[in-house]
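Troubleshooting log. The previous structure file for this entry was overwritten by mistake, so regenerating from the original sequence record. Sequence copied from the archived sheet and checked twice against the printout by T.R.
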Amino acid sequence: MRIVHFFCISCIVLTSSMDVLVADPATAFEFQTVIDKAKGLAAKPYMEPAPIPNFMKNLNYSEYQNIRFNPEKNLWRESHSRFQVMLMSPGLFYGNAVAINIIDSTGTHSLPYRRNYFTFTDPELEKRIPDDLGYAGFKLTYPLRGKDEQNQFLVFAGASYFRSVGGNNSFGLSFRGAALDTGLPTGEEFPSFVEYWLVRPMPDANTMMVYALLDSKSMTGAYSFKITPGVTTTADIKAIIFPRKELELLGMAPLTSMFYFGENTGRPVGEWRRQVHDSDGLLINNGSTGEWLWRPLLNPKKLQMDYFQTENVRGFGLLQRDTSFMDYLDTEAHYQKRPSAWVEPKGDWGLGKVVLVELPSPAETNDNIVAFWTPSGKVTPGKPVTLEYLLKVGDYSIAGDKMASAINTLVGDGNRVGGGSSAGAYRIIVDFAGGALAKTSPKTRLKASVSAQGDGVIVDQYVEYVPALHCWRLSILAKPVGNTPLLLRAFLQKGEETLTETWTYRLDNDNDIRGNTN
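Regenerated output below.
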């Protein structure tokens, strides 16, 4: 279920008249403490977290929004710390409180609930708030846009979800500690971060440590996050999973996003905007082959899952490559500012798959895209899964792809003027730019390697340079057979040299290209 986008980068002006207080360094805290706790928890039966009062669960969106944290109560504000903490109230989406601990120079302290940290528009609601309600999560702030501002850049709240932005982004896609059985007929299980440890940094620090304990019916986990905000915000993450039982589909480093419609799909009836999405494609860097693979996202008519085999994967992510206002024309959502996210493994993750789950969605209010890595071997009790990776959040260049990229994917009828004259076929346009193509003369003769899996047929294909876009265009006329999906792969070459990433696409037979059925 989508967590509604009410998070945004906001500014809290600090007063300059206060004397700067210097905090002592935090006492040492060992990640092993969290690991031992997760391991011990996995050996015990699962216990549901205590629920919040029903009246808090039943708040509507506006009522919940009227419970506001007072920025003057920011943790560590008194020392003019770069990093500060805003706390979140349970209610609405957040049905359970979590334990939050602060590690400072005097040791580790549980953070008690303080009702006066919040302002309430409804005084009757305020009276009913229990003194021990607890917190649903927290937001980290940092001066991303000037030394006198505190900008929200990272939020931990809801199950194992967390969100982050780079300095030039607004909030969009989200991340999770782990995903379990996502997309499977048995239904998805949502592990939750149930306890956090926040290490108080020195006031002038540019990195911060957060630890988290994960729990669910089927697994527990220990996590450490070394967080560095900036134009590209990074989190150096260590994760250790302890299964309580054999796990059918364990998703590690999950990314969750939204794709409603885009340049490669039909436009819903009555929709005036050109595109609506938080991310427009999945990029994978496969370590065993060195191939960079780009898969544009879809809003399918029915759930679909794609599995991309990897060996020692070097990276994967959900990117937002369409970053011009003209791509959307939306003055409220500003989808052009949504961040891209890139997972960069540390060490050899071995054999596994990057899994892409695409769910049908009738609106932009649902997160219907999930991408994660899953190991090939069985995940069983007594065999912890340990992974380390760097999560980067910023613009689409964070992946470091040096190949030319697919910047546009356009799909139309292959049996009409401008599309072709082949009944049942589709005209697919893929524009490539950047990388080695940026230094390639427009007069150079390039060739395309285009293939259709299964029974698909490539009727025609050619490559041309498009001066207006400074890109190379691959035009494909392809035809599926029967009711099977059309599965395509393509890349551009100069002689035997591959110049571009591999574009891959799936077009189901019940698509909306020839007529919208929404």
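The chain has four helices and 33 strands. Archived copy saved in two places this time.
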